[in-house]
Write a structure and sequence with these properties.
By secondary structure, the chain is an alpha+beta fold. Helix content is 32%, strand content 22%. The protein has helices spanning 4-12, 16-25, 33-54, 76-90, 153-156, 225-235, 253-263, 282-295, 326-338, and strands at residues 63-67, 73-75, 95-100, 107-108, 116-124, 135-143, 165-171, 175-180, 185-191, 196-201, 212-214, 246-247, 266-269, 299-301, 321-324. The strands form 3 sheets. The chain has an 8-stranded mixed sheet, sandwiched between helices. Strands 12-11-13-15-14 form a 5-stranded mixed sheet, with helices on both faces. Helix 6 links the parallel strand 11 and strand 12 (246-247). Helix 2 runs antiparallel to helix 3, helix 3 runs antiparallel to helix 4 and helix 6 packs across helix 9 (326-338). The radius of gyration is 20 Å and the shape is globular. The chain starts with a helix and ends in a 7-residue tail after the last helix. It binds 2,5-anhydro-1,6-di-O-phosphono-D-mannitol (AHM) and magnesium ion. 2,5-anhydro-1,6-di-O-phosphono-D-mannitol is lined by residues 72, 101, 121, 124-126, 216, 251-253, 269, 279-280.
């Protein structure tokens, strides 16, 4: 940076590492372990981002032979992302177990001495890989309930309210990492030229109302009546309420929720006659992104209940989800509660 102007600019940059250390220093009793964990995830995200960007020009594309726990074909990049995140979390003895979309059971780490439990979807929206459309990683962090006793699956089945941190990485036109530790939402953008995540927003707030709805509308005929009516409501011409809304659906929850966070509106993956419990996973898709959206001032519900209050009964369970701007989600809930019809076939 030869000129003065650029030197000033450098002074204003805050990297993810610096930010996390500064935030930790505000809490004198903090051990630094959660900070280290977030930095480890940031490191894995940079490696995954590099590989995602190369995906079109290397042979990493294509289906791996194995299937994941949901019977879906796993692609090589899914496996790569899973390995990178698990390897990053193994670096420091902070994480005792990982629950991943790509592993059926719990993955025990560091001789089980760590105090955090991490859930993750290492590569969300993987059907987008082959067409170079946005994909993401999602993570959710809990405290291990009792440091001394032997770990069981039960220890991992905590409600979303107990999350101590959560976040996502979006591999889009730029790579963005967002996280919360319950004190607001921070966003960082990866500058690939220096290999650092740079702070882009320290306290993101979601608009309280937005004119975008996001759902797989091709499944309309599988939906229940209340949801059908709500979507028709979004399409009514009424300039006073900014309708008709725009429809946007990327097919990657991390990307759709990131857009919703910044521009407002609502993202929906409902229950239906095709997916009676919805398709998205409570523990590593819905809870972490609900924590982010709530911290930004929005809402996340399964139609009746707050997502983060759902008591999980299994590691990979699904839930319907409606998430986004407060006023949009409240309106959706009105439509759902007015209709007690069962899903149409
Ligand atoms: P994945 O994590 O296995 O890639 O799938 C989850 C994704 C969500 O990110 C996205 O919202 C949804 O599945 C898309 O599903 P559909 O193809 O039914 O619209
Ligand atoms: Mg996913």
């Amino acid at each position: 940076f030869p000129n003065q102007k650029n030197q000033c600019f450098m002074k204003e940059l805050t990297t993810l590492e610096e930010y996390i250390i500064r935030a930790q220093n505000k809490f004198p009793g903090a051990t630094g372990e959660l900070s280290q964990l977030l930095r480890d995830i940031g490191l894995a995200a940079k490696i995954i981002s590099r590989e995602v960007n190369k995906a079109g020009i290397t042979n990493i594309l294509g289906y791996e032979k194995s299937e994941n726990v949901h019977g879906e074909s796993q692609k090589k990049l899914d496996l790569f992302a899973n390995e990178q995140l698990i390897s990053a979390l193994s670096r420091s003895n902070i994480t005792c177990m990982v629950i991943s979309e790509e592993n059926e059971g719990i993955v025990r780490l560091s001789g089980e001495s760590g105090k955090y439990i991490v859930y993750m979807d290492p590569l969300d929206g993987s059907s987008n890989i082959d067409v170079s459309v946005s994909i993401g990683s999602i993570f959710s962090i809990y405290m291990r309930p009792d440091g001394d006793k032997a770990l069981t699956e039960e220890d991992a089945l905590q409600t979303g309210e107990k999350q101590v941190a959560a976040g996502y990485v979006l591999y889009g036109s730029s790579t963005v990492m967002g996280y919360t530790t319950g004190l607001g939402v921070r966003l960082f953008t990866l500058d690939p030229s220096i290999g650092e995540f740079i702070l882009s927003s320290e306290d993101v707030k979601i608009p309280e109302y937005g004119n975008i709805y996001s759902a797989d509308e091709g499944s309309y005929n599988f939906w229940e009546l209340g949801l059908k009516k709500y979507v028709k409501h979004c399409q009514v011409i009424d300039p006073k309420t900014d309708r008709p809304f725009k429809a946007r659906y990327i097919g990657c929850m991390a990307a759709d929720v990131h857009r919703t966070l910044l521009q407002g509106g609502i993202f929906m993956y409902p229950d239906s006659s095709k997916y009676p419990n919805g398709k998205l996973r409570l523990m590593y898709e819905c809870n972490p992104l609900s924590f982010i959206i709530e911290q930004a001032g929005g809402l996340a519900t399964d139609g009746k209940k707050r997502i983060m209050e759902i008591k999980p009964s299994s590691l990979h369970e699904c839930t319907p989800i409606y998430i986004g701007s407060r006023k949009n989600v409240e309106k959706l809930k009105e439509f759902i509660s007015e209709s007690d019809e069962t899903p149409a076939g």
